Amino acid sequence: MNASNIFTSHANVADTQTDEISTEIKETLTLLKQFYDVSIVKFIDFREVYSKQLITCSDKESVENELLSYQKRCTQEKLYLFEDTFFDDVSNNTHKLIRFYAQYPIYSVTNKLIGVVLMADLAPKTLIGSQKDQFISFAQLLQTQLNKNSDSVSNQSTKPAKKNYGEKYIHVFSLAPVAFLISLVLCSFTALLLYTIEKKELQSNYNQQTQQLRKTLFNALERFDNQGLYISQKDLVIAGFLQSQNNYTKEQLNNLVQSQVSQNLTYKGYVVFDSEYNQLALWSKNNFDLAAYGFTNWLEKFNKRANKQAVEVFTVADTAFLISEMKIKQGSIYTLTAFDLSKFLKAVIGKLNTENYNVFIATPQFTLGKQGEVNPSIIKNSISALSSRFPPTWRLHVQPMNKIVRPQITKYSLIRLGLISFCVFAFVYYFLRLPRRLHSEIKQKNQLILNREELFSSSLDALPHGFAIFNSHEFPVITNNAFNLLFAQVNKQNSQLSYSQLISIAQQHNIINHYHEHHKLDDDRNQLIDIGFTDGKWITVLQRHTDFNGFVCYFRDDTEAHQKECLLADVLEKSKQTNQLKEKFVTRLSRQLKTPLSSLKSLVEISKDPISFNEFKNNVGNISDACDQLESVIQQLVNINKSEIGKLKLQAKNVNLNQMINNNMSILAKEAENKRIVLKNNITPELTVASDEKLISQLVIQLVTEVLDSSNNTTLSINAQIKNESKRNYLYLDFSLSNLIDNSNFITELKSISGDDITRFIDDKDVSLELKFFISIFKMLGGKAITVSSNANKSTISLSMLVNIATKQGKGKDNDQEVPSSSLTNTDLVKASLVTNKHQNTLLLVDDDPLVEIVIRAMLKNENIKIDYARSAIEAMLMVSQNSYDIILMDIVMPELSGTDAMLKIKKHSDNLKTKIIAHTSTPDTDLKYVNQGFDDMLLKPVKQGVLINQITRILKDKSL
């Protein structure tokens, strides 16, 4: 392959990638346009490579000019929204088309602004809720598509950047142990450096203060010596006089001495001696006898001094005697000056004082300071020196007013150094642990995560329902967490599935048991789909198709609403069936009434003409038979009502089965004739049992009527016999016929319970109202079993029920004995009836919403609870005054009177203190407010079936205890 082929192949690859990105950008813009239903979407690429726009309006030129003006207004890199710009005074003068405008920036992988995506519309529009985040998500999707192959654009204009070999060092420094070690070293070095600097500074201050103290001492000592020279000036005058005069008189010398020393207040006397210690002149104050002191010893000690240049002072009490020697050509002369020592030193101290320092002169006799004589113990932290002009026992002390201490690091300084070191450690560690501040690539990645990944994923995941975008091949491009959780069982085996494959696999694995697409119009882009999951979840899918043959799906969870719809539909369907059965039951009774009514009408017509006694007697018998037939039909209606309210009673008497069956056949004769069915009574005339004739008659009429409806052109034979089983007497009624057709729900349901335990029928079966009523009568009569058998073309329905053998009664006595079903105790018949009449609990539901009644009745349909319903609190109070209830389920918010007020009135005026009143409300009772007001308990709307049943069961159990 030559070089030209290499360059050609690379160019083709780059062109292919550019075309793919352009196609993806166009699809994204199309999806954005359809999702927000706007007329203008546009992506502006500042690199002029992928710029796209979709504008559907007539005046495109004016629209583009207005878009350009809006772009100039958006100067910052952020989300801009101009909603309903009709009253925008900036655009009001020149722009009248665009009423909505939104713009968001697009960044490259290097975090540089490379373009903007915008959408606009000619109609007012407002982005509410999560729509702003969704627009940002679309922008981030566009940014991802642009940066997917960013090298294809950047390589066209720039050379590949050299690899930065310093990256590995930056990554090493950003490791926690390395950063900690470096921070610790720098922290220790900083602490040591600051400690050394501070210590040197303190040492420098100490040295400076010490040097200044010494300098002050030297200056004070110099001034002190100058005072000694000042004292010796008079000696120089005397020496000059003696040296200049060859002849002088003693009087002249005395006068000179007096003139030199008499003016000084501190001097007490003055004496001049020659080298032989002869007195040349003497002066003293009047109150001071200088001649009384012996001078010879002092002069001899003076000549023996070690320092020949110094003077000697001798002190007697408070008087100091200063002896000095002066050389003249005639020899040496000695002068002795007597002065008041304390006054002298005070005068000297006044001339030695220095700012910031205290000066003291210490002599063997006392110590003097600026304020006079002081205690030597206060002279601390001072330095001293000897004067060359005064005796060595005299010392000059200089003390600083502020104590000079040796350099020492204090606790405060250590704490300050520790804080500074900690700050250095924290700063260095923080700096090293943030590589994005040191390395541009890490900074770009973090910025992309914030601007693209986090915003994009969080905005989609924030949606409460599933969301997915599928391409033209039905493969998912973008999904959120809710969608992934919805199809987690399917996707865990294969994550790369199309929409059709996803639904198909879910149906194959029985994850989805219902999938229905609603009909849509040809020009409609929206499609509604219902998906039912086997776990009970119900999802409504809004599918919107796009221009690039893809589609967007929004999976809304409608499980709760669907369950309510199904429950309501089930309740309505059962209500419809019940009404149909009631109508059928009434129609059947009306047919049964036609026979006795026709007989009575015929008798009425006959009675209009004169008749004989025999004819009258026959007519009375016919009237009695017709009345018995009417009574039997009417008794069915009465028994239905009594069985519903639990007040059905057993009337035990002797029953001739043959006569009873004949009477029933006469009622059904007309209907049997229409069906061409022959009714045949095969029961012996003498077969008599003790039971309830009316209930047995009603049982036979209902069963025969249902059989007549399920057969045609046949013979129905009725047989009866008594069998003794386990010391009990059972009556077996057999209904045999051919051509029995299963076109009746009653016969079909009767076959389904053939051979079952009848005493548990109501708890275990959910059947029609007719069969429930039939079984309730059968159980009242001590029913044992119902058997439906078929042999060839013959079918037999056998009823077995517990009876007593009939006892003979005297003629004229009443054989009827009415016994409530709860009080019979002596016979097996009564024991059987007790089993069938269990106590039924009663509940009063009070709510102004009829839908609540339907839901509560459906929830409690199998709980053996009789439910009454009141639409208002006033109606409930009226029903409570007339009936006794175990539980009252009371709504709180109702018109006219609230549930709380109704509860208080019922408890105040009701005699039944065992009635439990439960508050039924949608307001949570966190503080037991309703219980404190007087309610026995509380249920929160909408109540779940398990919670309702458990709470009612618990209350009834507590009440029974």
Topology:
Layout: H1 3-36, E1 40-45, E2 52-55, H2 60-73, E3 80-83, E4 100-107, E5 113-121, H3 131-147, H4 151-157, H5 167-173, H6 176-231, H7 233-244, H8 250-261, E6 267-273, E7 279-284, H9 296-303, E8 312-316, E9 319-328, E10 331-340, H10 341-352, E11 357-362, E12 367-369, E13 372-374, E14 383-386, E15 395-400, H11 411-432, H12 440-461, E16 466-470, E17 476-479, H13 481-486, H14 488-491, H15 499-508, E18 512-517, E19 526-533, E20 538-545, E21 551-557, H16 559-606, H17 613-645, E22 650-656, H18 657-674, E23 678-681, E24 688-691, H19 693-709, E25 715-725, E26 728-738, H20 745-752, H21 761-764, H22 769-780, E27 783-791, E28 794-802, E29 804-805, E30 817-819, H23 828-836, E31 841-846, H24 850-859, E32 865-870, H25 873-882, E33 887-891, H26 899-909, E34 916-921, H27 929-933, E35 937-940, H28 945-960
Parallel strand pairs: 23-25, 31-32, 31-33, 33-34, 34-35
Antiparallel strand pairs: 1-2, 1-5, 3-4, 4-5, 6-7, 6-10, 8-9, 9-10, 11-12, 11-15, 12-13, 14-15, 16-17, 16-21, 18-19, 19-20, 20-21, 22-24, 22-30, 24-29, 25-26, 26-28, 27-28
Helix pairs in contact: 1-3, 3-12, 6-10, 6-11, 7-8, 16-17, 16-18, 17-18, 17-19, 18-19, 19-22, 25-26
